[in-house]
From TrEMBL:
Protein name: Soluble lytic murein transglycosylase
Comp. bias (Low complexity): 719-731
Keywords carried by this UniProt record: Signal
Molecular function, one GO term: hydrolase activity, hydrolyzing O-glycosyl compounds
Gene3D superfamilies on file: 1.10.530.10, Bacterial muramidases
Keyword Lyase part of the UniProt annotation: no
Family statement drawn from the similarity comment of this UniProt entry: Belongs to the transglycosylase Slt family.
Region annotation Disordered: where it falls in the sequence: 719-739
Signal peptide: 1-39
CC annotations in GO: periplasmic space
Amino acid sequence: MHPPAEFRTSEIMTSSLRDRIIGPLAAALLALSTAPALAEDAAQIGRALAAASMRDWPVAEAEAARSGPMALDLVLWQRLRAGQGTWPEYRDFAARHGDWPGLALFYKRGDAVLRADLPPAEVIGWFGARRPDTLNGALALIGALQATDPAAAKAEIARFWTEQALNKAEADIFVAAYGADIAGLHDARLARLLDLGEWQAAQVALPLATPAGQALGKARLALQSGQGGVDKLILSLPEAQQQDAGLALDRFRWRVWAKMPELARDLMLERSTSPEALRDPAAWAGKRADYARLALRQGDWALAEKLAAGHFMLPGSDEFIDLEWLAGYAALRGGAPDRALARFKALEAGVTSPISVSRALYWQGRALEAQGHAARAEAAYRRAADYKSAWYGQLAGEKLGQPLDFATLGGQRAGGSLPEWRGSSLRENPVWQAGVWLIAAGEPDQGQRFLLHLAETATPEDIGRMARMMLDMRLPWHALRLAKAAAAKGAVYPDAYFPLTGLETDDLGLPPELVMAIARRESEFNHTVSSHAGALGLMQVMPDTARSMARKIGEPFDQRRLTRDAAYNARLGAAYLAGLRERFGPSVALVAAGYNAGPGRSARWLGEFGDLRGEVDPVDWVEMIPFDETRNYVMRVAEALPVYRARIQGRPVPLVPTWDLTGGGVKPAPEALRIQLARSARPLPGPRALAYFAAGGVLAEVLGPVPAVPLDQAAADPAAAGGAITPTRPARAGASATR
């Protein structure tokens, strides 16, 4: 209802209300289980984690010891990440569990306890392919390399000095140790720090730079920190330095901040000749898309294409996907379908998910139609229609007159029916085991963290197995997140990607597929979640809105129930949805946009872009929504509608995404649709069902016969951490074209 919901996940040991109240959780099943030993193991882990949350390590370890090695490692993982460990503990844990999640912090803490007297091979082995980002870590690695590979040591000295932000005390230590090796690198270091927006660290580095480096650095620092006299500093530079790519990036950011969009756009066009001229293409990409979309809305197709096409982003990134599509769309609208087709083919080659592949193929069809190639256009639409779990695949299917059949929805690539997890070798993976034990101990969100981490490197089939296990454990929100991870790799598992929860059987006075589509997007069906903006529960209702809706439908308002009672939250969210339908009619585009960004914006966009209920192309209308989050929200809600319509009714349904977008052109509120509901295949279980699952031992199947993993088994594969340049927000100064 408010943009966008960012889920708050507690630290591993937090005894959160969310985890205590979820009925179908593993811990609840274990509490009812006829396997006392299994239940006690989980209870002991839960007590150990609770003690660890209070940093009571002796009690945590004593409780964990009563359970076994996995419990001890979970507590140790938390203690080491808290910086409470010795060097041997860090070294040995990395050898056993180098593939666990959260290791960036783990390694940072471990680097802090490295000692100068450690054997060089031990230090080099600790880092592996990872590079240090702390002074102590760098000193340790450089010392080890100097004893074994002096050339590698010199390279690491140069890398660390030019890339890392240090305070004055740290910089002084490094200069004292390696001054001769870094004498010629101070200008490069200053430029790098300024590129990162680390202008305070850059001030420390400034005196070490050459006179020319200092002059350029002072101009950049003035821009970043909002100092006066910037124009004079820039104009005093030699022409070559005035064209410096880093200075251009600072000038661009300053113009954006100063609300000078035309000058910022002109500088963007001037610099969009190569990745080097932009210094960091990603730093320009967000505003590049904004300016291109603004040009589209103003009907300036040539400018929009020029802005979008000069992005220089690598295939696969979100920015590449958006900008490559924008360049193709602008070319198509500007009467150049040949250039558009080339862009849409490049987009297809650079993506893997059904959402993006179907988008590329659908627009290839549109470009081919514009060229007069009807047969080739139909072939492109047929390929796009293979991805009917995605909005553009559904639009292609509509063009071809195809229905949506839930039974065949996962036919793309490696998806389809969820594979069985029982008997799988996946169960021998220590990351899988840790995740399952966390779920059993009442920490489902942290358990999911382990499973999602495992999904990053797992095959789509193994991700499907984890998703099926989550459905078996009555955790549809975790199943959905895993299904999204599989979809990103090109495999759709419909049962988990569009799960049923029992909500679809409630009579809320609205089409059930609409309620399911909104809840899926808002909370992923997690009725206990809160957003940073304060939205609560299944439908992510703001407390003030919930209070108003409770009054409207005659229910008492209780804010605590918003994250405890899914049905209560659904009634209040549905009441708000009903109000949007009364205002905008059944158009899912207007209703979903209003739910996400506010009804005022839906009304404003009707005025700005035209009325999609009869005046303009509804697909174009959705693509012109200026907010990335809302545009994506509308597409994801719209694509879930026919899927849930088919799943709830238990039969294939006509594909009518255009009707859904426009509401059939209806502007007043229609009567509520009457749909005969099929009973959910997976309703939320009642007490009898819970008792059945406990007695049947679903959790015992998950946890019971898992082979023990030897403590000396090592699986080290740490991932390097990355970061993005973040624009600074200096104090505002006078506007200047020089800047």
